[in-house]
Amino acid sequence: MRKKFSTINILDEICSSNFDQICQNFSEINYSKGQLIYDLDHNEDLIFIVKKGKIRIYLALEDKEFSLAILEPGDIYSTHTRAYVEAVEDVTLLTMPTEKFHLYIATHSALSRTIISVLGELLKQSFSIIENLVFNDISGRLINFFLQEARESGQVTDEGIILNLDLTMEQLATIVSASRQTVSTIVNSMQRANILQKQRRGVFLIPDLDRLKNFSTF
User: Fold this and answer.
1) How is the beta sheet containing 197-200 ordered, strand by strand?
2) pTM above the 0.70 mark?
């Protein structure tokens, strides 16, 4: 899966001068790091936009969790899915009842097109996540994550591609649906093989994408 849920910043779109009235009708709510914001038992039907911080969208079955996305400022989601929503760090959300939001976008065709584009990205990512979980082990999911980030946001240098993930090892583990210890072990193996170089917290250098793609921990 990708770290960034969408390439479109809905917050910038909605709070532009064209949609001032919509922006002013969102309610602002704060949550603390680690707090479960929405679960399967909630009865609120809301659209929400991340204003500050990061949240994790995930599915849970018995003792297993499957991460769907890490939402960052500008990302939009809704509460009527069967997913859990958790604050990865201190978070501020802008919320609005779904029905009220639908009324706004029905009368603003430009905003409606933007929302459709975001939903299209979500659907595409959902299929990628399912494929990744079904056909890849943890090592494969981690490799795919690094490759995806390298293609979408990596900084090309003479030494290789730099990834500024801004993630702790624990957060990285939640993204690939694995334990922190397992992810740490795999990352250490990559470093020993010079597949991955950790420059500082959350920042990695990939010297060769092909070597990363073909890396095996076995």
Assistant:
1) 155-156, 161-164, 203-206, 197-200
2) no
Q: Which of 107, 127, 158 is the last residue of a domain?
A: 107
Q: Which of 137, 136, 150, 125 is nearest to 211 (CA)?
A: 150
Per-residue pLDDT tens for 26-82? 999 999 999 999 988 888 889 899 999 999 888 887 777 777 778 889 888 888 877
Q: DSSP letters along 103-136, please?
A: HHHHT-HHHHHHHHHHHHHHHHHHHHHHHHHHH-
Beta strand spans in the chain (E): 27-31, 36-38, 46-52, 55-61, 64-71, 76-78, 84-87, 91-97, 155-156, 161-164, 197-200, 203-206
Classify residue 179: in a domain, yes or no: yes
* Torsions phi, psi for 65 (to 5 deg): -125, 140
Residue pLDDT, tens place only, 141-175: 899 889 988 988 899 999 999 999 888 888 888 88
Kindly state whether residues 15 and 103 are assigned to the same domain: yes
Task: Give the Cα separation of 97 and 197 in Å (integer).
Answer: 45
Helix (H, G, I), strand (E, B) or coil at 207: coil
In the chain, the number of structural domains is: 2
